[in-house]
């Protein structure tokens, strides 16, 4: 899918649901290939897989197989992520969570996540959040 027309941004939790065949995986798979994801969230996914003692080359293969449209975390995304801190602080969202929300906001598409805390901040963050479970 062309990243210019991708219809969602995936959070690390959504990607991990697919990789580990967790509840909600089929909802995420409906947007593959081509779903948008921030490079920050790829770092989170890679970190999780490596912490499971998955070899580097397998991590690269697993992520590559998903055919995601990985978006750079550039200056504009960094500022947008920082600006979301005030509206996401109460829900305890991480830098990666805010990077996902910032990308979804910029692209005007929903963010898919397994993290229920996102519902608390979706309105203030001006992002449509879809829970996968």
Please, could you describe this protein's structure?
The chain is globular and about 40 Å long. The protein has eight helices and five strands. The mean pLDDT is 96. The strands form two sheets. A three-stranded parallel beta sheet has the order 1-4-5. Helix 1 crosses helix 3 (39-51). The two termini are 24 Å apart. The protein is 53% helix and 11% strand. The chain has helices at residues 12-19, 25-29, 39-51, 56-65, 75-83, 85-88, 95-107, 118-125; strands at residues 9-10, 36-38, 69-71, 111-113, 129-131. The protein has one domain: 5'-nuclease (Rossmann fold). With 133 residues, it is mainly alpha-helical. The longest helix has 13 residues, at 39-51.
CATH topology call: Rossmann fold
Helix content: 40-55%
Strand adjacency order, main sheet = 1-4-5
Under the CATH scheme, the architecture is 3-Layer(aba) Sandwich
Question: Helix segment count?
Answer: 8
Output the CATH homologous superfamily. Answer: 5'-nuclease
The H-and-E topology, N to C, reads as EHHEHHEHHHEHE
Count up the domains. Answer: 1
Amount of beta strand: 5-15%
CATH class, anyone?
Alpha Beta
How would you describe the shape? globular
Give Rg in angstroms.
14 Å
Q: Which structural class do you get from the secondary structure elements?
A: mainly alpha
């Amino acid at each position: 899918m062309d990243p210019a027309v991708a219809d969602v941004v995936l959070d690390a939790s959504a990607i991990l649901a697919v990789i580990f065949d967790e509840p909600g995986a089929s909802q995420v798979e409906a947007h593959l290939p081509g779903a948008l994801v921030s490079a920050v969230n790829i770092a989170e996914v890679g970190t999780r897989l490596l912490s499971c003692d998955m070899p580097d080359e397998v991590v690269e293969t697993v992520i590559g197989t998903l055919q995601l449209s990985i978006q750079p975390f550039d200056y504009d995304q960094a500022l947008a992520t920082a600006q979301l801190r005030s509206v996401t602080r109460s829900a305890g969202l991480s830098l990666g969570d805010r990077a996902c929300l910032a990308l979804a906001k910029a692209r005007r598409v929903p963010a898919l996540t397994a993290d229920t805390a996102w519902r608390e901040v979706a309105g203030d963050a001006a992002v449509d959040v879809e829970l996968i479970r």
